[in-house]
Structure formats: C-alpha cells, structure tokens
Hints:
Helices cover 36% and strands 17% of the residues. It has helices at residues 51-72, 83-94, 98-113, 148-155, 159-162, 165-174, 182-195, 251-269, 286-294, and strands at 2-8, 13-18, 24-29, 35-39, 136-144, 205-216, 222-225, 237-241.
Amino acid sequence: MEGHIKNEIEEGVGLRVIDNRDIEHRMVLARDGEILAHKTGEYPEPSKRTNEEDESFSQARRFARYHVYREKGYDTIAPPNNPDRIAAVLLTVLNLGSAEFDCHFQTLFEQVASHDFPDIDPPLDLPSEVYSQEALVYKQHVYLEEDLEAMQQELQRPAAEMLNEDLVDDLLNAGKPTPTAGVSGFTSAVQSLVDGTSERSGLTIDGVSGIDTMYYEDTNEDRTITGDDPFDRDPDATIELIPARFDEDVFGFYLCYNLLCQIRDCYIGMGVEPPAQYRVLGHGKYKYTGKYRHFDFYPDYWDHEAQITGYLSPV
C-alpha cells in the first residue's frame, strides 16, 4: 500500500492510494474519517466483485483513513480499529497492579474460565443454550480517560511504536505459566519489565463495560447479549476472548495477547504487513478470524498452529 496526500481543502483531505493490486484510488476524506469521494476505474461495481476484489477495495479505504491519521493527526479511524489506541490500552493494562487488574477483569476471567473449570461459577446469567454454541466470544470494552489529542501529547509518539520487539518478547516470556503464580505473578513480572524501560504509558483506564456475549445459533447471523456499559462513546479497545482452557496464572497474558493479535489484525485489514513485533498467531478480532477462516487469500493468522513465515506463536 502507498498513500500520497495531494491537498487539504475545507471539506477534508484529498489523497491517492495505490493498493496491493497496483490499482490507484483517488479519495477525499473528511477529518472525522468519512469518505466523501472515492474514484477508481479498475474495480467492478460492488455486486459483481469477487470476495478478493471487495476486500482489496475495503483495504484501500482502511489504509486511507490510517494514512491521513498518521500524517495529519486527525481522528479518522474508529477508536477500536486504531492500532495505536489498542496499543495504548495494552500499555495501560501492563502498568496495572494485580488489584487494579482484578478490579477491571476478574469477572471476565471467571466467565471465560467457567467453561472448563466446574468449581468456577459463571457470573453471567445466560440462557443454557448459549453454552452449547461452537462460536462464542466474550467482549469487554475498555475506556481510557484521555482522548486522542491528550493521548498523543502524553505519549509523544504512536503507541504501537512504543511496544518494540524487545518489550513484546519480554511480554511473551512473562506470560509463561509458573506454579502458583496466579494473575499477580504475571502482573508483577510485567511491571518489572515495564519499569525497566522508558515505555510507561502515563495513561489511565477510565472504566470498563460489562461483558457482551456474542454467539451464533442455526443461522449465519450473530446474536449478542449485551452487558451494562456506563459510557456513551466508542471504547478505545474491546477485549475479545473465546473460551479456552487456561489457569488463572496465564489469564493476564491471554488477555494481553488478544490485544497484540488485534493490533496485527488492524494492519492486515488495511493491506499492510504488521511491524515485526505484531507478527503473531492467534485469535484477535473475531471479525478478522472469520475473514481468515473463510477467505482463501488470507493465511490462517488466527491459528496458533499455522506455519506462516515470520509469524510466531507463544503457545
């Protein structure tokens, strides 16, 4: 993908994007991310596009929003799809002590773990048939106190760049379970490695939502049972966990690793190879897991057992 900003007018930003099929797109993007104009002569009309053509067209639009955001600083990407916002949430979670971590995420742990540990009662009151569904995802929204402008001023550089390869490697190593470590063992190990760097975020979690339960029944339509959410704005990130057998000592790692994979998905979704530290395998955003599983032009990034050159799995 290549982006070239041509001009800035009252309505927004004019730019050219060359996509991965070497096709040119000319767009005008409003400063809030709305695409006001999009011209390209080499794609069929939407109803006649193949899945690959349609996804490539969408990648160009996602990349355009990202390019204007990075070059101009405008808030052109929906917050939970912005890799820098997700990275900012991840950095903030890494700075939490064990008590703060439990305060925000203990209910999520108990709900996810209740599938495999009969001694853990599920805190959510869900219909019994939900537990028999193969496709089931628990989602929890995370909100930072800082808006995008304050976040940029505090961090001084994009959050996704603050998580460098060494820090991510340390994070993956800190996630290896040890006997009787518990969540506090993971958070203590992570705090030690973050304290040893200059990459403390200085950001604060304003709050989290209740837990949404998304599942499929007999149709291809997903159903969601929503949890309480005290915020009337987009979250900075949404944790998306599928039921998996893990002990409490690796839950903090499992949560953080999901956010790493989501950052990967953001780059893949705009047609860009992720930075090296985000070339990891596993479940990130459920929307992209579906793409990887059903579109043969995408490798199986969601599968931690996949063999993809340059991509690693800590499992």
